[in-house]
Amino acid sequence: MDRLKQLVEGWIDAEPGRNARRLADAAGVSRTTVYSLLSRTQQARRMVERATLEALAAGMGVHPNLLIEAARDDAGYWTEDVRAATSPRIRALQAALDDLTEAEAEEVAEVAEVVLRRVLARRAAAGQLPLGGVPDQRSGSSL
User: What is d(CA 142, CA 109) in angstroms, rounded to the nearest whole number?
Assistant: First the structure.
């Protein structure tokens, strides 16, 4: 099953009363568009128009890059290094980070570093500290 189809089906299945028609109405796209995504076969995986993906994302209440990345992956446009992040959470974070300015991305990295230090401190107290610690973004060494 392709990722884009999985994301759309997941949105529909997440709440009672959701269906393809409701998504089409919320996204401002034709019902045929949504039904086509839900019924497409592995052989018919072509890249979906970016505007359609952005409209669907707005209708689903998700970041557009999540659907864009899924569609690119389904159409075979990803490189191997991008495929390495298989977790949906990691993909969603990567998609959101793509739209940040360099300063905003740095701010997010600083917050993440603080949280990771806290988690590692708890693990260290429990005797579960992983090797290497938290990488220091400024110097590249572990803290």
Answer: 15
In this prediction the pTM is 0.56
Placement of tokens 């045929």 in the chain: 32
pLDDT surpassing 50 at residue 68: yes
User: What is the distance between the alpha carbons of residues 62 and 35, in angstroms, rounded to a whole number?
Assistant: 19
The answer to whether 98 touches 70, Cβ cutoff 8 Å, is no
Distance CA 10, CA 61 (A): 13
As given in the structure block, the two tokens for residue 94 are 């990567």
- Which residues 6+ apart lie within 8 Å of 27 measured at CB? 34, 55, 56, 58, 59, 60
